[in-house]
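Backbone geometry tokens:
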Amino acid sequence: MNIMLFHSACGLRPAVHAGAERLRAAGHEVHVPDLFGGRTFESVEEGMAFRDEIGRDELLKRAVLAAAPHSDAGLVYAGFSFGGSVAQHLAFADDKARGVLLLHGTSDIADDASVDELPVQLHIADPDPFEPHDWLNAWYLRARRAGAEVEVHSYPGAGHLYTDPDLPDYDAEAAEQTWRVALAFLDTL
């Protein structure tokens, strides 16, 4: 599978590279663009402030430019937190998308969005301060209405970026379960 993996608001940290290596070890081709030009952060809040300085439109433009050379083959779009929102945006706009793997984050879905049975898998902390239950319920309904085939896996007690071993949110058990389930999902695409 050809995978475009986007980093979180913390930037292209070692955990993103480690995730890409896990995917490569499972036989996938993985592309990991740096939307922040080398900047990394120790907290989601710091990263979000930097993200806001750059602006959503500019970041989506960078993501589209990174994905474009690979999209003809049909990409699986994946991302961590903020990167998940980027992955979701690109996948819902790409009629060749093969699937979406969201780790820690989602994004709004336009009322007129339409995909043809696009497989989407979300892994999320429960509760997650950036993805409250009301938001997730509405997101799920909008994604299904748009035509996505959605699976949601939640991890009680885990912190927001629980797959990053260098951050306080890290939860080893939840991270291992996430990767196990995600790799099985990718095998079905």
